[in-house]
Automatic annotation (TrEMBL), chain A:
Pfam families: DUF2868. The chain crosses the membrane at residues 37-62, 74-97, 153-177, 189-208, 229-256. It comes from Marinomonas piezotolerans. The lineage of its organism: Bacteria, Pseudomonadati, Pseudomonadota, Gammaproteobacteria, Oceanospirillales. InterPro entries: DUF2868. This is DUF2868 domain-containing protein. Signal peptide: none annotated. Keywords: Membrane, Transmembrane, Transmembrane helix. The keyword Oxidoreductase does not apply.
UniProtKB/TrEMBL annotation, chain B:
This is DUF3482 domain-containing protein. One of its GO terms (cellular component) is cytosol. Residues 6-148 form the G domain. One of its GO terms (biological process) is tRNA methylation. One of its GO terms (molecular function) is GTP binding. It comes from Marinomonas piezotolerans. InterPro entries: DUF3482, GTP-bd, P-loop_NTPase. Pfam families: DUF3482 (PF11981), MMR_HSR1 (PF01926).
Length: 407, 454
């Protein structure tokens, strides 16, 4: 049994959706186990159909056993062969149009049975879940169950028809009818009603005279009448039983095929509709990043600044720190122009650095140049204090000249 | 043909984060608070319906734009046009020693359609940032400033907007790679539309697709929450005695917690986040002994509807049994089977309580308080994930959500009380559709209301 390419794609996509990144099974293994499950499910269906065929083969002879002196009640026989079928059909129609078929007990039982069977076959539960979702969930499941039910009943009726045919080929029976409550007229009307479709299909159907002559208390039937009743009974079973069930089974199969294919296509079109992305490195990093060991020396903390010194705020856009209020605060160094101006000055000064921002190459280049005139570097803020300390030490700043200013 | 967007900016302003958020891909690139995390140029192609729509090019950050811009004033370059200087600076071997990282950016300038310049609004406009813009201007390509971290307060949005306006950059886009809103992303694409009118339809399709994807993610997450709540509300655990033992309670609580954990994992998968992105704290389970509310008119009415449904399956079961025993009784027995089937479903909810009552055993079920908590936590998680940028590094903690009002509690309690009667709706397979029932619709409306409110 081979899977279509679409079903394979839908299977992998369903597994991916259900289990996300955790799903790690080998693809060939998945297909093998899924196919095994499919084979097992099909075998169970065929097994059930065969069982119902067998039951049908057994049911008709049991009904014929009821005949007394080779006299067979026509409507009793029809009732046995078609009664249960009509009741079941009526209930199926009701449940089908009630729209809640999907929550039926049968479905739950079948799903549970499938899971138990898969466990016995050592097939992972995720594959069973995917199988159910692709072939059995929602509308697919509704038509799947309808097909199975009609096929089973179809098989049962075919079995009954075949065994009835065989019985009538090998036995001579008189077809009679009897009633206590109904009138002869009612019986005739009922029989003629059942005869409409067989007559339209060209079968010989009983006339009013035939019906009248077949009453229990009438004389023995001629051979032609017996044959006519036998054909009529078999025709009724064929038309009202077998044909209806096979037609519904076929219809359900078509709908199941359509909905399953639609479901598979939906999964596939979802894949195609997906928004995906690919990445490519187009200019790789060729330099090895230097990971400098961070300095372990804790910075000396100060809360006040010496008053008679000059201070610059380096790359500073925040409000001016309170600690600078009483000092000779000069200016900010926020641009290339500020940097040039600072470097042109030879006056000793101090630098206040915002250490909530990570140091970058440009800042460090300037601070290295400024080191000739800058006496002390004060750090404000903690996230990148160690990075600044390490970088400044690397640029030749003395450890004692780096302090933490606590506000 | 795909539009090529070059993502540039100072080091550590969130260029990689922007791409992660736009692509909903947490795995793209590397993110760190320190400068110089991205040291290579990487292109990410956004493909929709098998067609490439966007090329996003991630670049290393500028670190020394002041130094680089000063080379413009070299005697040999002083009289060259900006474009010529850019060609020189991108390839000059003498600049590689100090500006290798910047050269990687400059080399890409000629290949892109639009430059997205990422600005970290938490910091004011320093000279080095403005020099970066001056350098980029030399490429003669449209520049769209992306104002990142726009939801952080206080920020320097006004100062930046003024600086950008002075440089004739009026069309900027506000964005936040941590607190993500789809409207920001839409604004970005709309800005691109205005800059590239030839690609208007292509970008329009992209906007529609992104909107559709966002809606689908929300719907899927809400559906998962509904499943979790229905399964929690309809779960019953028969105890081993009339009084629940600690082991029974533990088993019950573990089951409810596992349902919530499964829901969280599902939501993370829908929104393509990692397990580490959410911290799930223990839920205080309010397990209560369960009592059938047989007097609830709505419950009984709906059981009446169910009777019709199950009758057919009962007939199938009856047929298979009766045919084996006696063919002559087939019709009667099948009808009887249908009747048994009908009462099966009707009595399903009662069955376990009656049997356990006779056996003097308690049944555990989830109390309304727990279910309301699950509802609130679930809705809050969905709301968070819906607006969580894929660059966010801080884990979201699901704590007990803000308390509902008295009216809401009454409404939710009533809803969950009715749901609890529907034990037949308890299903392991969350891919199955929930019943088309007024209670489910009501639950859905409550979830949507909570998400809309947030």
């Amino acid at each position: 049994m081979s899977l279509s390419a679409n079903e394979k794609t839908a299977l992998f996509e369903t597994l991916r959706r259900n289990d996300g990144a955790h799903f790690k099974l080998d693809q060939d293994q998945i297909i093998k186990q899924y196919t095994q499950l499919l084979y097992a499910a099909n075998s169970i269906q065929w097994g059930l159909i065969a069982l119902f065929l067998l039951l049908g083969l057994m049911a008709a002879p049991l009904a014929f056993d009821n005949s007394i002196n080779q006299k067979l009640n026509i409507f009793w026989l029809l009732g046995v062969l078609l009664g249960a079928h009509f009741v079941s059909l009526g209930l199926w129609v009701l449940s089908f149009f009630a729209g809640q078929h999907r929550h039926s007990y049968l479905r739950t039982t079948m799903t549970a049975g499938l899971k138990r069977g898969a466990k016995w076959m050592q097939i992972p539960n995720i594959i069973v879940e995917a199988f159910i979702q692709i072939r059995f969930a929602n509308t697919c499941g509704k038509w799947f169950l309808s097909r199975l039910m009609h096929s089973m009943w179809g098989a049962y009726l075919i079995g009954g028809l075949v065994s009835a045919l065989f019985f009538l080929l090998t036995h001579q029976v008189h077809f009679i009818w009897e009633t206590t409550l109904l009138t002869e007229q009612s019986f005739a009307t009922l029989t003629q009603f059942f005869s409409i479709v067989p007559a339209a299909l060209g079968l010989t159907v009983p006339t009013l005279q035939d019906i009248s002559q077949s009453r229990l208390d009438q004389a023995a039937q001629p051979e032609a009448m017996r044959r006519m009743w036998a054909v009529w009974v078999l025709g009724c079973v064929l038309i009202y039983g077998v044909f209806i069930r096979l037609a519904l089974a076929g219809l359900s199969h078509l709908y199941w095929l359509t909905t399953t294919r639609k479901r598979i296509k939906t999964v596939i079109s979802d894949i195609n509709r997906q928004t995906i992305h690919h990445t490519t490195i187009i200019d790789p990093d060729t330099l090895t990043k230097e990971n400098d060991e961070p300095s372990n020396t804790p910075l000396k903390r100060v809360t006040h600044l010496p008053l008679n010194e000059t201070y610059y705020l380096f790359e500073w856009t925040k409000p001016i720190p309170l600690a600078l209020a009483a000092t000779r605060y000069s200016d900010t160094i926020n641009s290339a122009h500020d940097q040039q101006q600072y470097l042109r000055s030879s006056e000793p000064s101090n630098m206040i650095i915002d250490s909530t921002v990570s140091p970058d190459r440009g800042s460090l280049r300037f601070l290295k140049q400024a080191n000739t005139t800058c006496q002390t570097y004060y750090m404000i803020g903690s996230p990148f204090q160690k990075d600044w300390q390490t970088a400044l030490l690397k640029e030749g700043v003395l450890a004692n000249n780096i302090l933490e200013l606590v506000e | 043909m795909a539009i090529s967007l070059l993502i540039v900016g100072h080091a550590n302003t969130g260029k990689t984060s922007l791409i992660r958020t736009l692509m909903r891909d947490q795995q793209f690139g590397a993110i760190d608070n320190r400068s110089g995390t991205t040291r290579h140029v990487e292109r990410i192609d956004l493909i929709i319906d098998k067609k490439p729509i966007l090329h996003l090019i991630d670049t290393p950050g500028f670190e020394d734009s002041i130094g680089l811009w000063q080379t413009r004033k070299y005697e040999a370059q002083a009289h060259e046009s900006g474009h010529n200087w850019l060609s020189y600076a991108a390839n000059a071997p003498e600049l590689t020693l100090h500006f290798e990282q910047e050269q990687k950016i400059l080399k890409q300038l000629s290949n892109c359609d639009i430059i997205l310049y990422v600005i970290d609004l938490r910091y004011g406009p320093l000279g080095k940032y403005l020099d970066e813009i001056d350098i980029l201007t030399c490429a003669n390509k449209p520049i769209v400033p992306i104002l990142n971290f726009c939801h952080v307060q206080p920020n320097y949005a006004r100062e930046w907007q003024q600086c950008l306006a002075e440089r004739q950059l009026h069309a900027h886009v506000r964005f936040d790679t941590v607190a993500f809103f789809f409207s920001d992303e839409r604004k970005l694409y709309q800005t691109l539309q205005s800059l590239m009118p030839d690609h208007y339809d292509q970008l329009n399709n992209l906007i529609k697709r992104r909107e559709f994807d966002a809606e689908q993610r929300l719907k899927k997450a809400q559906h998962a929450l509904m499943h979790m709540l229905v399964n929690s509300a309809t779960y019953q655990l028969p105890c081993r005695s009339a009084k629940p033992q600690p082991s029974d309670i533990q088993q019950f609580e573990d089951h409810i917690r596992s349902l919530e954990q499964h829901f969280v994992a599902h939501c993370l998968d829908i929104y393509t986040f990692q397990t580490s992105d959410v911290v799930l704290r223990g839920l205080a389970i309010n397990g209560s002994q369960w009592q059938q509310d047989i007097f609830d008119a709505d419950t009984l009415k709906n059981w009446g509807i169910q009777t019709t449904t199950v009758a057919a399956t009962g007939a199938a079961i009856g047929a298979s049994i009766d045919i084996l025993s006696a063919g002559l009784t087939l019709g009667t027995a099948t009808t009887l089977g249908a009747l048994i089937g009908a009462s099966w479903q009707t009595g399903q909810s009662f069955k376990s309580s009656i049997i356990n009552k006779l056996r003097n055993r308690a049944i555990l079920a989830t109390g309304s308080a727990t279910l309301i908590t699950l509802l609130y936590r679930g809705a809050e998680l969905i709301n968070h994930l819906h607006h969580r940028g894929h660059a966010t590094q801080q884990a979201f903690t699901i704590e007990d959500a803000k308390p509902p009002t008295k009216e809401e509690i009454a409404r939710y309690s009533q809803l969950f009380k009715k749901l609890a009667q529907r034990t037949e709706w308890n299903q392991e397979d969350t891919s199955q559709e929930l019943p088309n029932h007024s209670l489910i619709k009501q639950l859905q409306e409550e979830i949507i209301r909570l998400n809309d409110r947030d």
